[in-house]
Specification:
mainly alpha; 4 helices; 9% strand
Length: 139
């Protein structure tokens, strides 16, 4: 059994490394993006409908700790084409290279294009309720 478990752990490590490298390869950068243009995946059957209790829990956390939009763990990944990315980058006040290697805060995009986010719908919905109208962005 220990040999099989060791092999399974080795395979898990390899898979984790592959996943990390694939995510790193696909990562284009981070920007502050308007919440109103972040949309969830449009599935016919939503596997996890919005849970109002979860949104309320997040709102309590936001009130106590802030919503920590810049914290890497709270970033929301999105799908974008190369063309869409170029248009969005064109709205930034900085060079394209700075969205991947920013030092302090990511730049704020002024794009009006919808981006489909892959997860974080409860966080996004809570942020829409929590943040002031002029400050509704997420990374």
């Amino acid at each position: 059994i220990s040999n099989l478990m060791g092999h399974a752990l080795d395979m898990a490590a390899v898979n984790n490394d592959e996943i990390f490298h694939e995510k790193h390869r696909a990562f284009c950068g981070s920007v502050k993006y308007p919440l109103k243009f972040l949309v969830s995946e449009q599935n016919d059957v939503d596997p996890r409908a919005l849970d109002q209790k979860n949104i309320k829990r997040l709102l309590v956390n936001f009130n106590l700790e802030g919503c920590n939009r810049l914290q890497l763990d709270n970033h929301v990944p999105v799908l974008t084409s190369k063309e869409q990315l170029e248009r969005i980058v064109g709205t930034l006040p900085t060079a394209k290279s700075q969205i991947r290697d920013y030092r302090e805060e990511p730049p704020k995009a002024s794009s009006a294009e919808n981006l489909t986010y892959l997860h974080g719908k409860h966080r996004i919905e809570a942020a829409r309720k929590f943040l002031n109208a002029g400050d509704r962005w997420w990374t």
